[in-house]
Amino acid sequence: MQDPKGFVTFFKAARTVCALLLMTHLIPVHGTPVEACNSLACRCLTHQVTCSYEGLTELPTGIPNDTYILELWGNKFTSITKTSFAGLSQVTDILLSDNKISSIEVGSFDWQSDTLEQLWLNTNELETLEVGVFRNLTELKYLHLESNMISSLSVGIFRDLSSLVSIDLNNNKISHLPSDIFRGLSFRKLGLARNGIMNIDNTLAALPSNLVTLDLNGNDLGNLRAAMFSGFPNLTQLKLEANGMDSLPNNLFVGLDKLALLHLDHNVLVELNRASFGEHPKLEMLTLANNSIVRIEPGIFSTFPKLRQIELQANDLTYLPPGIFDNLTSLKFLHLDGNRLDNLDGNIFRDLQNVWYIYLQGNGMKSLPSTIFRGLQMLRYLYLDDNKLSVIESGTFDGLPRIENIYLEDNPLTNITCGMLPTKNVSTVLWEISIDCTCEWKPVYDCPEFSWVGSKLECNSPLRFWFDSLDEVPKDALTCAAPRMFCFNHIGWVALSVLALLSNIIISY
Ligand SMILES: *[C@@H]1O[C@H](CO)[C@@H](O)[C@H](O)[C@H]1NC(C)=O
Ligand SMILES: *[C@@H]1O[C@H](CO)[C@@H](O)[C@H](O)[C@H]1NC(C)=O
Ligand SMILES: *[C@@H]1O[C@H](CO)[C@@H](O)[C@H](O)[C@H]1NC(C)=O
Ligand SMILES: *[C@@H]1O[C@H](CO)[C@@H](O)[C@H](O)[C@H]1NC(C)=O
Ligand SMILES: *[C@@H]1O[C@H](CO)[C@@H](O)[C@H](O)[C@H]1NC(C)=O
Ligand SMILES: *[C@@H]1O[C@H](CO)[C@@H](O)[C@H](O)[C@H]1NC(C)=O
Ligand SMILES: *[C@@H]1O[C@H](CO)[C@@H](O)[C@H](O)[C@H]1NC(C)=O
Predict the structure, then answer these.
(1) Which ligand has its closest atom nearest to the C-alpha of 279?
(2) If you measure from the C-alpha of residue 234 to the centroid of ligand 3, how many angstroms do you get, rounded to a whole number?
(3) How far is the CA of 210 from the centre of ligand 3 (A)?
(4) Rounded CA gap, 297 and 267, in Å?
(5) Which spans are transmembrane here (predicted)?
(6) How open is the CA angle 107-110-116, to the nearest 5 degrees?
(7) Cα three-residue angle 28-31-34, rounded to 5 degrees
C-alpha cells in the first residue's frame, strides 16, 4: 500500500460495511427473518432455541436441526407454513404462545410427526383450524389452543393424536362440539371454559369417558340433569363455575366416586341438598363462593370425610345448622366470610381438629359462644373482623396452641377484659391480633400479661397509630370510637386531614 490515506479510507469503508452486515444479523429488521443462532433476538443452547418477546415478524432461519425445544412465544408471527419447521425432525416442544398467528398451513408439523410432544398455540388469533394441521402427530401429549377465536372444530382435526393427554380450548368461541370430534382419543384433561357452550348434553356426548379433569367454567349451561356425569367415572376435577345455575337436581353428581375437586362458585344457587351430591369419599375441595345460598341441609358435608377446603364466602347465609361440620377431621380451610351469619352454635367447629384457617369476617356476628374454638389445636388464622361483636367472652381464645393471627378490627367491642386474650403459656407462636386502638382497650394495659400481649395487639386504626402495637401507644392517647361513619375510616381520615389543611390555608390568608 503506497497510499496510506487510501488504505484508511478503504479500511473505514470496510469496517462500516462489516458493521452494517453484522447489525442486520443481530438486530431484527421488520419483515426480514433473523438467523437464529447468529442474532441477539435468539439464544441457542444445546438442543434449545429461544427467541421470545423480540417483536419478530418472521420466523428465524437457521434453527439447528438437533433442536428439541423451540421457544418462539411473544413475537408477532402471523402464520405458520409447511416450510416454517422443515428439517427439524427432533423437536419435542414448540412454543408459539402469544403471537398473532391466524393461519397454519396443513403439513406445518410434518417433520415433527414422530417427536412432537407439546404444542403451544395459545393466545393467538386463530379462528379456524383446517383438518390436517395436526396430521400424524402421534406423539403429541399436550395441545394448547386456549385464548384464540376458534368458533368451530371440524371432525377429523384431532384424528391422529393418539397420545394426547390434555387439550386446552378455554377462552374461545366454541358453542358446540360435533359428536365425533374426539372419537378414538383418550385424553384425560379438557378445558372448555369461557366458550359459549349452552347444550351440555351434546358436549358431554363428545367427550372421552376416561376424562379426569373437565373445566366448563363460564359457559351458559344453566341447570343440569340428574346423573349427567356418570359416564365419566374417573373425573377427579369438575369445574362448573359461573354457569347461571340456580339449583342442582337430585343425583347430579352420582357415580363420581373419584371426585376430588368440585367448583360451583359464581352461580345463583339458593340451597344445598344432600340428594344432589352422592358419595364422594375422595372429595377434598368444594367451592360454592359467590352464590345466593341461604340454606344448607344438615349432614351434607359430613359424607365427605376427606374434605380439606370448603368455600362458602359471599353467599346469603344467616344460619348454619348445628353439626354441619361434624366429622370433617381433615378440614384445613373454612371460608364463611361475606355472609349474614349473626350467631353460631357453640359446638359447630368441634370436629375440626386440623383446621388451619377460619374465615368469618364480614358477617353480622353479634356474639361468639365462648366454647366455639375449643380444641382447635391446629388453628393458625382466625378472621373475625368486620362483624358486630361487642363482647368476646373470657376464655374464647384459650386453648389455641398454634394460633398466629386473630383479626378483630371493625367490631364495636366495648367490654374488653384480660380473659378474652390468648395466654402466653398456651399460644406461644401468637404473632398478631389486629384491632382498632380505641379507649375500650385501656383496661388491657393493666393485664398481667400486657408486657407480652401488648406487643401483639396491632392497631389497624385510627390512622395515626397505624402499624403501632398497643404497647407503643400511650394509654392516654387512646380516644373513644365515635359512631361508625364515613369520617372514621381510613379514607375519612385522609379526607378530614385534607379539609383541615385547606381550612388552615384559608385561615392563614
Ligand atoms: C443436520 O445438519 C448438519 C449440518 O448442519 C448435517 O450434517 C446433518 O446431516 C443434519 N442432520 C439431520 C438429521 O438432518
Ligand atoms: C402420515 O402417516 C401416514 C401413515 O403413517 C403416511 O402414509 C403419510 O405419508 C404421513 N403423512 C405425512 C404428511 O407425513
Ligand atoms: C378409569 O381409570 C381406570 C384406571 O386408570 C381404567 O382402568 C378405566 O378404564 C377408566 N375408566 C374409564 C371409563 O375410562
Ligand atoms: C360421622 O362419622 C361416624 C362414623 O365415622 C358416623 O357414624 C356418623 O354418622 C357421621 N356423622 C355424620 C353427621 O355424618
Ligand atoms: C360475585 O361475582 C361477581 C362476578 O362474577 C362479582 O362482580 C361480585 O363482586 C362478586 N360478589 C362478591 C360478593 O364477591
Ligand atoms: C364486662 O365483662 C365482665 C367479665 O366478663 C362482666 O363481669 C361485666 O358484667 C361486664 N360488663 C358489662 C358492662 O357488660
Ligand atoms: C396458663 O397461664 C394461666 C395464667 O397466666 C393459667 O391460669 C393457666 O392455667 C395456664 N395454663 C396452662 C396450660 O399452663
Answers:
(1) 4
(2) 6
(3) 6
(4) 18
(5) 490-507
(6) 125
(7) 40
Q: Is the distance from CB of 369 to CB of 346 less than 8 angstroms? A: yes
Question: Model's pTM, two decimal places?
Answer: 0.85
Domain-by-domain residue ranges, the chain? Answer: 317-503
The protein residue with its alpha carbon nearest to ligand 2, atom 1, reads: 136
Question: What are the DSSP calls for 185-235, one per residue?
Answer: ---SEEE-TTS----HHHHHHTS-TT--EEE-TTS---S--TTTTTT-TT-
Backbone angles phi and psi of 426, in degrees to 5: -100, -55
pLDDT tens for 217-226 read 999 998 899 9
Pocket lining for ligand 5, CB < 6 angstroms: 266, 290, 314, 338
> SS3 of 403, please?
coil
Q: In whole angstroms, what is the distance from residue 175 CA to residue 177 CA?
A: 7
Instruction: Tell me what pLDDT residue 36 has.
Output: 76
The three three-digit cell numbers of residue 407, written as one number: 383479626
Nearest to 99 by CA among 76, 80, 121: 76
pLDDT in tens, 56-100: 999 999 999 999 999 999 999 999 999 999 999 999 999 999 999
d(CA 187, CA 209): 9
Architecture of domain 317-503: Alpha-Beta Horseshoe (3.80)
Q: How far is CA 491 from CA 449, 468, 483, 486, 487, in A?
A: 34, 19, 16, 8, 8
Using CB distances shorter than 6 Å, the residues near ligand 7 are 423, 425-426
The conformational region for residue 273 under phi > 0 = left, psi -120 to 50 = alpha, else beta, is: beta
Q: What does the pLDDT look like over 476-499, one tens digit per residue?
A: 999 987 655 444 455 555 555 555
33 CB within 6 A, ligand 3: no
pLDDT-derived band of residue 41, with 50, 70 and 90 as boundaries?
confident
